[in-house]
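User: Predict the full complex structure for these chains.
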Amino acid sequence: GENVEQHPSTLSVQEGDSAVIKCTYSDSASNYFPWYKQELGKRPQLIIDIRSNVGEKKDQRIAVTLNKTAKHFSLHITETQPEDSAVYFCAATDYGNEKLTFGTGTRLTIIP
Amino acid sequence: DSGVTQTPKHLITATGQRVTLRCSPRSGDLSVYWYQQSLDQGLQFLIQYYNGEERAKGNILERFSAQQFPDLHSELNLSSLELGDSALYFCASSSSGADPGELFFGEGSRLTVL
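Assistant: Here is the predicted structure of the two-chain assembly.
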């Protein structure tokens, strides 16, 4: 089955700086890669996703890049703000298989 | 509000007991997923149902079982509870069949086994 590894497990950045979280996956058939944000005590929520037919996707301060050859994808947050503090999860799955496999999460702390 | 409703929000019980967690998906969503999140842990996939049928199974213990009813709500049954079963159990729903798309999570049911 799919195995998703996520690094780092914790990340602290100064407000205004950029944050990068990286994930690798094992199943070359995977072609859907979402990122979820979970604030303290809250439910996970989708913030951005990418499919295998594109290499990069942006949404305001958030971007995701995908390298299918190397089987890794990354989340980039620019101009970080205090409200970006949360746990971020990457995930992977393939069409026809709705079993999303999540990474172990990255606790991002924005230092004011 | 994601539109996914989970009950109860909190549950405290003793080892060896049995509990049932309930989930109502978003209106129109046919898929229901169950995830377990232990303290400072990731989201462990347990099981998925699509329109009443089991679609995918993860690392779900034999002591755990689930079902999805004709009205599409789902229940997760946890029996012979152990201390290690203490966790936050999330239900999520999606509208998709083959295309995964976005999962909408409920607020979770926090289970404490004493």
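The interface with chain A takes residues 2, 31, 33, 35, 41-45, 48, 50, 55-56, 58, 90, 94, 96, 98-100, 102-103, 105-108 of chain B (CB under 8 Å).
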